[in-house]
Write a structure and sequence with these properties.
Strand order of the largest sheet: 5-4-1-6-7-8
Largest sheet: 6 strands, parallel
Helix content: 40-55%
Number of strands: 15
Number of domains: 4
Structural class: alpha/beta
Distance between the termini: 30 Å
Number of helices: 22
Shape: elongated
């Protein structure tokens, strides 16, 4: 059957996740930035221009409410609008460069990114000024919003489906409450930790340096709860168990959620499975008390797989799910689950995910938005021996696209990789790939080992397995590096 005959339709994409996307909102003044010096400079300028004795120390001690409120403390009501306009004229020139990020800000934003989340700033500050501050400090925020105070902030937070709002003021707690978001307070503004806690903050931190650890723990707990809730909906499951960290964690989670007697671990045996993977997989399944089966898959019989075009993984995953379906039927099992995680789902070119989805396989880790890092962290907390296991994609992923796959090529790659791994074992190697480029091979090892080991023995070991030439990739191991060649073939000729 040709590739064209079974090519899935564009509409065939995985379903919605069980948990909402992570969107975190932040206040600006005294949450992300210390804007007091710049703001005070503008107020000092207004005092000098107007002759009004403004206590600018007092002004910057109570940042948070809208500018019009503060202006009304110093000028008659009929002058407030004009003075606000004058303040905003001076602000870009005098306030922006004087403001600095508070401790932990880059790390806090990066923590959201690492969890595949989005960020927004919701501030009472004039919207153009919000953008100027963020741009000046190079703070990468997806959505800046200004001119909202207190509970009004809930409007923007709800619109962008924020589930967490971080601020330093009691009014920020009001905004989080109005949006139904978790109110996280930092004691870097006008209120103490005790005052914020007494007002009703869900979480109180000393400053944003504590935010990444809190966020990691909170989000992991939420996503694990979503995973277990999803798994508990099934009376029984077949888990496509490669032996890697993701499918091992899914297997352990399923055993916890519905009991090991209701779970079957299925490890497909074929020339594309590294020989060293089968025994550890059997041992792991046995340690959980789940039934372990080892059906043989025949992806090598599929022309699309052998042809090794960019959609090779589609045929492999189709073969896997179609092989596991009769096993599920035999045991009267509800569903087949794969270890696809949240990182896999956004990694771009993944035809295998599409093939499994079309055949009804479920993706509980992906649906709970669990990332690879979170899966490893949860595996460590559960004491799973696979928590730090290196990634181990099928052997066919080592063969350059366009080279026809044969069992002999897979054996050659498997032996070459094992030889390199044996040489690097004393160095604590994690990742090894030997990429078959035809007559030559590209050797990928952990980047931190590149300058510590002699490359010559590695090259000799690979050439001994039948490659005419070999070289160590100076960029080190990169998961899915063959896709780089697919995207820009001219670069790798």
């Amino acid at each position: 059957m040709s590739t064209a005959e079974i090519q899935p339709t564009p509409a065939a994409t995985p379903g919605e996740a069980d948990v909402p996307e992570l969107v975190v909102g932040f206040d600006l003044d005294m949450t992300l930035i210390d804007s007091r010096p710049g703001i005070q400079a503008v107020w000092d300028l207004l005092a000098a221009e107007t002759g009004v004795p403004i206590d600018t120390d007092l002004v910057v001690s109570r940042l948070g409410p809208p500018l019009t409120w503060e202006m009304a403390n110093w000028f008659p009501q009929d002058q407030v609008e004009a003075m606000v306009a004058r303040y905003r004229e001076h602000y870009p020139s005098y306030a922006i460069t004087g403001s600095l990020p508070l401790p932990g800000v880059p790390e806090a934003l990066a923590a959201v990114r690492a969890l595949r989340g989005r960020t927004m700033v919701v501030s009472a500050k004039y919207a153009p000024s919000v953008t100027l501050h963020l741009e000046h400090l190079g703070l990468d925020v997806d959505e800046p919003v200004g001119d909202l105070h207190g509970a009004e902030k809930g409007t923007a937070l709800r619109e962008h489906q924020a589930t967490i709002y971080v601020g330093d003021h009691t009014a920020d707690i009001d905004g989080a409450r109005a949006a139904g978001a978790v109110a996280v307070s930092v004691a870097t503004g006008p209120f103490s930790a005790d005052e914020l806690r007494a007002y009703g903050a869900d979480v109180v931190l000393n400053d944003l340096t504590e935010f990444p650890a809190w966020l990691d723990a909170y989000v992991l707990e939420q996503r694990l709860e979503a995973l277990m809730t999803r798994l508990a909906k099934y009376e029984s499951l077949v888990v496509a168990f490669s032996g890697g960290a993701d499918s091992a964690f899914l297997l352990a989670a399923a055993a916890r959620a519905i009991g090991p007697a209701n779970v079957v671990a299925a490890t497909a045996v074929s020339p594309s499975l590294p020989v060293a993977e089968l025994e550890p997989a059997a041992h792991f399944a046995d340690s959980l008390g789940v039934r372990h089966v080892t059906p043989h898959t025949h992806e090598m019989d599929r022309e699309g797989y052998q042809a090794n075009a960019g959609d090779r993984c589609y045929f492999c995953k189709a073969e896997l799910v179609e092989t596991l379906q009769p096993i599920a039927d035999e045991f009267g099992i509800d569903a087949i689950a794969t270890g696809t995680n949240a990182d896999d789902a956004i990694a771009g070119f993944r035809p295998g995910i599409r093939a499994a989805f079309e055949r009804g396989a479920i993706t509980p880790l992906r649906d709970a938005r669990l990332t690879k890092a979170q899966i490893r962290a949860a595996s460590r907390s559960w004491g799973l021996e696979t928590s730090d296991k290196p990634a181990a994609a099928c052997l066919s992923s080592r063969i350059a696209y366009g080279i026809r796959i044969t069992p002999n090529l897979l054996v050659r790659v498997d032996r070459a990789e094992q030889a390199v791994r044996d040489l690097l074992t004393p160095y604590g190697v994690q990742n090894v790939r030997v990429r078959d480029l035809g007559e030559s091979a590209s050797i990928e090892i952990d980047a931190d080992l590149l300058g510590r080991v002699d490359h010559a023995p590695l090259i000799d070991a690979v050439r001994a397995e039948g490659f005419a030439a070999a070289a160590v990739d100076s960029r080190g191991f990169r998961s899915g590096s063959m896709n780089e060649r697919l995207a820009d073939p001219d670069r790798y000729r």
